[in-house]
Structures are given as C-alpha cells and as structure tokens.
Amino acid sequence: MPRNHLAALVALLVTVTLVASTPQQPAPEPAIADYRVQAVPMMAVKITDDFWRPRLETTMRVTIPHIFDKNEETGRVANFARAARKAPGAYEGRRFNDSDVYKAVEAASYALAQQPDPALAKRVDAIVALIAAAQEKDGYLFPARTVDPRNPPPGVGPERWTFLSGSHELYSVGHLYEAAVAHQAATQSRQLLEVAIRNADLVSRTFGPSARRAVPGHQEIELALVRLYRATGERRYLDLAKFFLDERGKPHDTQPYPADSPFAIYNDPPYRQDHAPVISQERAVGHAVRAMYMYAGMTDIAALYGHQGYRDAVERLWRDVVSKRMYITGGLGARSTVEAFGDDYELPNRSAYTETCAAVGSDLWNHRMFLLTGDSRYVDVLERTLYNGTLSGVSLAGTTFFYQNPLESDGKVERTAYFEVACCPSNLARLLTQLPGLIYATRNTDLYVNLFVGSEADIRIGGMPVRITQRTRYPWEGVVRLRVELPSQPVGAEAKPRDQVTFSMLIRMPGWSRNQAVPSDLYHFSGTTLESISIKVNGQRAPLMLDRGFARIQRPWRSGDTVEVSFPMPVQRVLAHEGITGNQGRVALQRGPLVYALEARDNAGRVLDLVLPLEAALGAEFRPDLLGGVTVITGTGLTRGEGASPRERPIVAIPYYAWANRGPGEMAVWIPTQ
Prior knowledge:
Blueprint: H1 3-6, H2 9-13, E1 38-39, E2 45-47, H3 52-73, H4 76-83, H5 97-114, H6 118-134, H7 143-146, H8 169-187, H9 191-206, H10 221-232, H11 235-246, H12 288-304, H13 308-324, H14 356-373, H15 376-390, E3 408-410, H16 423-432, E4 440-443, E5 446-449, E6 455-461, E7 464-472, E8 479-485, E9 489-491, E10 494-496, E11 501-508, E12 523-525, E13 534-537, E14 540-541, E15 546-547, E16 550-557, E17 562-566, E18 572-576, E19 586-591, E20 594-599, E21 610-611, E22 618-623, E23 630-639, E24 647-655, E25 666-668, E26 671-672
Parallel strand pairs: 5-11
Antiparallel strand pairs: 1-4, 2-6, 3-25, 4-5, 6-7, 7-8, 8-17, 9-10, 11-16, 12-18, 13-14, 13-17, 15-16, 18-19, 19-20, 19-26, 20-24, 20-25, 21-23, 22-23, 23-24
Helix pairs in contact: 3-5, 3-16, 4-5, 4-6, 5-6, 5-8, 5-16, 8-9, 8-10, 10-11, 10-12, 11-12, 12-13, 12-14, 14-15, 14-16
C-alpha cells in the first residue's frame, strides 16, 4: 500500500484528533473541537511480540475466513443476493443478520490494511458488490425488508422505521458505515463508502430537528455517523449523531410492539437507555452492549463539540460502571435474561452474562475516554477487559466462541462455532485487528505508551518523526524495553542526521502494579507497591514522576537511547467489595494483567469442591507446552468433602482467557477460602 494512503488509515479507523481543540462557543452551531490526545495510527505500528502477534495472525488467517464461511452457510450473504434480485428464496434468519456481514467486512478491511491476502480481498470485493446491488434506489438498505416487503421477518414493522425500538434498521446501517470507512481506507475504493453515503443521506432526510424526531432502539449509528463525518467532512452526519443522542429520554411517535409480542421488552425505555436525557443519566442501566455503544458515541460528542455536559455524563457513568457493575475480568452485564446490567454490586458468577460484545464495546469506549482526558485509569480498564473479558471470547484455534463469559461453570459450558445471533465473533475480529492502534498515542510533544506489546512504531511527536521499538514478554514477564531512534531528516537531495529531539515519554504504571484492581474499591488486592517499580534510562535509575498514572520522562532524546521499566509480577490475591455477596469468603487470583481460573482438567477433574486458604503459599511458572504457552499459578488447596476432613490437594490455575479450550469441565475464578 502506498505510504500516502497508510498515513490516512487510522484517522478513519479510530477516533483521533483532526484539528486543534478550541473552547466551546455559544454559537447556534458549535465550533468543532476534538480529542486532546491522538492515537498513533494502526498502520504506523507493527506488532512483533510472542503473545499478540500469533493471535493477530490467527484472527486474520483463520477467524475472519471462518466468519465469512459461516455467514455464507447461514444465508446471511445470500440475503443480500435475494434483496438485489440476484437469487431466489425467502429471507433467512434474524432481522439484523446483515450487521454480521458488515462487521466481517470491517474486520477484513483492517486485516488487509496490515498484510496482503488476495483470497480474502476477493471475498470482500464480492460481498461489497452484493451489498451495493441490494441497496434500494433512494439509499434504503435493509435486506430483512427488501427481500419481501410484504412479509418481513419477526420484529420488523409493516412500513420502514415502524418499530424503531427493536427493528435494528438504524443499528445495522451503523455497522455499514463503520465497514465502509474501514474498507475505503484500506483499499482506496469508494464503492462501499458511496453506499454508506447514500444511506446516511436518506437517514438525514428522514430524521432530524426539522424532520422525524425518533431514536434507534439499539445504539450504534451514533458513533458510526461520527466516523462517516470524519471520512467525508460532511457536518450533517456529525450533527445527526448528536441529534439521535439528544433525543433520548423524550417522547416520540415510534410505535411500540404489542404487549403480547416476544419483542415487547424493547418497549422498556431503561432497557434501551431511553428513559432520560443522556446528559442527565447517572447510572448504567439496561442492555450492556447498547450502553457501551451509546457511551462511546457520547464521548465522541463530548470531544468534537467541546460539550461539558456530555463530558460530565460519560465520566459519571464510567464511575458507576467500574465501581458497582464490572466483573474482575472487565466483563459487563449481570442478567442473562435481558443481557443487561443489574442492581448495585449484582455480579453473579455462574449466571454472569458478560457478553463478549459488551467487552468489545467497553474497550472502544475506554480508549475514547483516555483520548478525551489523557488519564491512565481508562487504559487500565481497557487492558483488564482486553486480556480477560475480551480475549476469553475466542478459542486459541480461532474458530469457536463464547457469547457469554461466565466466571464459574459446572462443566456444561462449551464454545460454539457460530450463533443464531452472531454479533460476537465479528465484533471480536474487528477489535483484535485494531489492536496496533491502541498501543501508543501522542499529544503535542508527549508520547504515551499505553499497552505493553512488542512492536515497532513510526510516530510523529511535535511534528518530528521518531521510531520507537518496544520489546517485552508481557503479560508473562514485567520487563518492558523501549528504544528511541531518530530517522534522518531530508534536506534537499540529502538526508541530514538529527542529534536529538526533546519530548516527554509517558509510560503507564498499570493499576495492578499499584494494588488497584480497578480505579475504585470494587476489588481489593495486595502484593505490589509503586516503590517496587524500576525505571532506567540508558541503564541509569530514573526517578518516578507520576502524571495521571503515567511515569513522565522528559529529556532530549538521541538515537539509541533506551528506557527499561520493570514491574514485579507476584501472584496477587483479590477480595471483592462486601456488596458482592456471592464472593464473600472467596478469593480470586491475578498476576500482572491476567485474571486466573481453576479448570477441572488441571485439578484432578473437579474445582467446585476446592478451598484455597488465604495463607496458602502460591507460586508461578511458565509452561511453554500448555495452551500455547502460559504462566500458571500453583499451590496447595483443600478438598471439601461431605462428612470428611479436608484433604490437601495441589492446585493449578490458568489464565482465564484460556479456559474451555480442552473440552468441558468445571471452572471457577472465585474460590472459597475456608
């Protein structure tokens, strides 16, 4: 791919700064501001380490083709052919099945941007052509209706936009917009982008302050319109995103589902976060995935409009989520019946819903919150969720998945090759292929090192090119080495070496290294202190100067300068807040960013009868031949037997993300202590 195309890629893929931030103006049309921190574009970063590089390769070479295969086998792709009158037959599946195709195209576009794959590119081209052919003349695109408008699938009304609370018409095209932006950036083809523009123009003619006032029941189009605005420069898309958010909590003329309909749950305003204006919402309620997408869109509006009310709201909602509703794995959503948040501290283990899509949404929202504030606590949550609640959603082989990610199993939970509601596999793929763009960020002359991932990055800091090389065995070891190189600057026909560039390197001091499981009192654990962290610059110990959770190192940098950070990684015992009643008298284990689980296969076939006393000695060892190579936690627990004295038994805990890769069996994250 030509370099001039690469530079533009993640400006379209990730929400980053495009223009300088300006104060909010009291004008009818507010001046555009933006995020204070800019993500380093994903195409400027090459991942090289032994943990993440194989996972990216599996995602690109195995998972994405697998998803394409399943979309074809289940009729998801054929639905577009039928809508285009290129194939006979009735519509197949759920009304929102088109969104799975869009997300697969988005993930494939990110993959193609990082490495060539002619076979995958051919499949994407064929699907993009089908999508374009399925679009109606005025821009409407929803195969569930177009295939047979007189007999649409359940949940879709007799006319366009009838049941907006649950039809998913606007949700699906939101994923279309995201796919289109990614596809255009990766391939330079405008074919899918033009489809998205025609649809967005129809939506903007249909909805708005001087048109129909309504909101989608499943959020997604809001943040997607922001991305479409960035790709096209069309202000009306950005304003429409804000309109949809501003309209929430107001009465509308949207028709509700009949009371006896299986879709009547969508009539409930709190379920879809439509119970109050978004800037006055104080508590995370309702469907967890909807909430994450809405909060991400709200954060975009807070940044782009410089809107203090939106900023206050997302910070307030974030505090509520991390202090009362987040699992130790970063998982979100306690109630499986409605895929929703529960009451304060309602975090059951075996029945935890913790949908993979909610974890993906949390990753994307927390990244935006970091870009908005420059505060490391949001990256702490992103990291916790990424390594645990997100990565657990896909098998090591890349072809089976979890929709739910419970923290305890009686042995009946297994991964699945695909789902009738298949939102999670493609969501995982599009998140993992964006990982290079989550590692580094800049602000003026500040360079942020957010995630510890072996990588090579070409970064502009204060307008000057700098190459950063990161080497680490994280998450297994806590040593991170960074090397600075200053590429030569062209001067006329020659390249002039540069002696030095002055900037600040800000290296995140992760919460787990400072005895913070999350930035709240939801979980408590010990084992590390800030004083135990070592930072060396060119081999010399450097003072630890904290700035919003980052160690700031400001100096003139020369080519070959190095920074070495060492985080001790003891095994840490985690105790839960007293409000989480199901975890009282229980302990969880963590080492570095990884939460651990006991699985039956490593523990004599059972784990639900185990006790782990708080005083039990624990150790850690790396086993290269286990589950692709993992560090396990070892120790001695006790077996609880009915009517028998407790017996000592060796225990082995594996990283939570790796469970359920060796067949069914019991599993537990929280273990009784007596």
